[in-house]
Amino acid sequence: MRYHGAMSKILVVDDEAPIRSTLRTVLERRGYSVEEAANVDDALAKLTGSDPPELALVDLRLPGRDGTVVLEKARALSLPTEIVMISGHGSIASAVQAVRSGAYDFLEKPLDRERLLITVRNALRQARANQERLNAAGPGLLTASPVMKSVLEEASRYAPAPAPILITGETGSGKEVLARWIHVRSGHARGPFVAVNCAALPETLAESELFGHVKGAFTGADAPRKGKFVTASGGTLFLDEIGDLPPPVQAKLLRVLEEEKVQPVGSDAVTAVDVRVLAATHRDLDALCREGRFRDDLYFRVAGLKLNVPPLRERPEDVAALAEHFLDAAYQRQGWQVTTLSGPFMKALKKFSWPGNVRQLRWVVERAALLAGPAAPDPSHLPQELLGAGPASSGSSLSDIKEDVERNVIARALEKYSGNVTRAAKEVGLSRSRLYEKLEDLKIDPGVFRAGGKGR
C-alpha cells in the first residue's frame, strides 16, 4: 500500500470497456495510478496480489458473479482496500445494502465527475487510515518463527468474526500486541481499542470501571462515569488478566456479553453497546474453574475461540528481528542515527532463555541503547545475568530476573513521567498503592526522577 506523497493506486472493476476507459482517463488526469478488471476473478487477483490498490471502484452488475462478491472477499480477508460500489438505477437498493455490509460508499450511473472525485479522495483518506492502523499494530508481531506464524494464520481467520477470543500465554509474551493486531483486522477496526488490566482493578471499583456509574451511586461518585464498555462501543474491549476479576463482576460481565447491554452502578437504565471482546490471561482458567474461582459459564462464553501466544524461548527465530526493531525505535526516539546490533551482542541475546519474554527483551535492548547511545551497544551494556547465561535452559534464578525486569520497567515509567507515581502506575498496569509497595521492595526512590532529583 502507498503512503502520503506517493501515487495512489485505484482498481476499476467493470465489464464494459468504455466505462473503464472513461474512469481511467478522469482518474489519471488527477494523478492516480489506475488498474482495470473486467470480472470478479480478475479483481480478486489484483486485490490479493503483492501490490494491492488502496481503492476499488466496483460495478455491482458483473458477468457470472456480481460485485458484492468482491466486497465480501475483501472484508473476509480484512484487506485495507476501500470499496466503492457503482450501481445502475435499478440496483440502488443493493448498493445501499453493500454499504451496510462494509462498502465505503456507492455511486450511481451515469457517474457525476465531481461526485466521483470527491468520493475517491475521501475513500483514499480512509484507506490510508486503515493502513496506518495496520502499520501501528504490525511491528510488535515481527516473526520468523513457524509456530508464531501458525498463530497469526489462525488469528487472521478469527479476526473478522464478532465472537470473543481468549488469548493465553505467559506474562510479557505479547498477548496485548496480538489483540491489537486482531482489532485492526476486524469488523470493529474503525472503532476504538480500549485495554483494561483486570488485575489492577480494585475490587470495590471494578464494576464501576467496566460498566460505569451514575452520580451519587456510592461515596466518592461525584460525577457520572461511562465505563469501559461504553467507551469501547463500536470497537474492541481488551480484558487483560480476566482471571483476576472478582466473582461478582464476573457475573455481571457474563450478563453484558449475553445481552450486549450495560447497566451503570446506581442506575435502572441500560445502554446498548456494540463491543468486540478480546480477553487474555497467563493463568490456567480451567484450574480456576475447578477451584470455583472463575465461573464456568463465563469461561465458555469468552473462550469459544482460543489463541495461545508461545513464549519467546519457543520461538528463538524472533529474537534478532525483535531486538533490531526495539533498537531502531529507541534510537529514533532519542534522535540518534539508527545503528545495528553487533555479533557478540546478538549472540548473548540468543543464548538467553527470556523468562520475561518479549517485554524483557524490549527493556534489555532499550536499556543497552540508553547506556551506549549514540554509539552501537555492545555486551558490556547488557545486564549481568545475560552475560553469564549458558544455554537457553539455564541462567539466573527466575525471581532475580523478574525483579530486574520489574525494576527496569518501573524505572523507565518513572523517568518518562518525571517521577509522577500516579501516571507511572497507569503506564505499568498497577494500582498506585501496589506501585508504592513495589518501589519499597525494589528500593526505588521516585524523587530521583523528578526535576533536580528531589521530590516536589
The biggest beta sheet reads: 5 strands, parallel
Give me the count of strands: 12
Strand content: 5-15%
Instruction: Assign the structural class, choosing from mainly alpha, mainly beta, alpha/beta, alpha+beta, or little secondary structure.
Output: alpha/beta
Mean pLDDT: 83
Approximate helicity band:
40-55%
* Estimated radius of gyration: 26 Å
Termini separation comes to 49 Å
Low-confidence stretches: 1-6, 389-398, 452-456
The backbone outline, from C-alpha atoms, is: globular
User: What order do the strands of the largest sheet run in, or round the barrel if closed?
Assistant: 2-1-3-4-5
Question: What's the tally of helices?
Answer: 19
Could you characterize what this model shows?
This protein is of the alpha/beta class. It is 45% helix and 12% strand. The protein contains 19 helices and twelve strands. The protein has a five-stranded parallel sheet with strand order 2-1-3-4-5, sandwiched between helices. Strands 7-8-11-6-12 form a five-stranded parallel sheet. A two-stranded antiparallel ribbon has the order 9-10. Helix 3 links the parallel strand 3 and strand 4. Helix 18 packs across helix 19.
Please provide a brief summary of the model.
By secondary structure, the chain is α/β, with parallel strands linked by helices. Helix content is 45%, strand content 12%. The protein has helices spanning 17-29, 40-47, 68-76, 92-100, 113-137, 146-158, 175-183, 206-211, 228-231, 247-259, 285-290, 296-302, 319-334, 343-351, 357-372, 384-387, 398-416, 421-428, 432-442; strands at residues 9-13, 33-37, 55-59, 82-87, 105-108, 165-168, 193-197, 236-240, 261-262, 271-272, 276-281, 305-308.
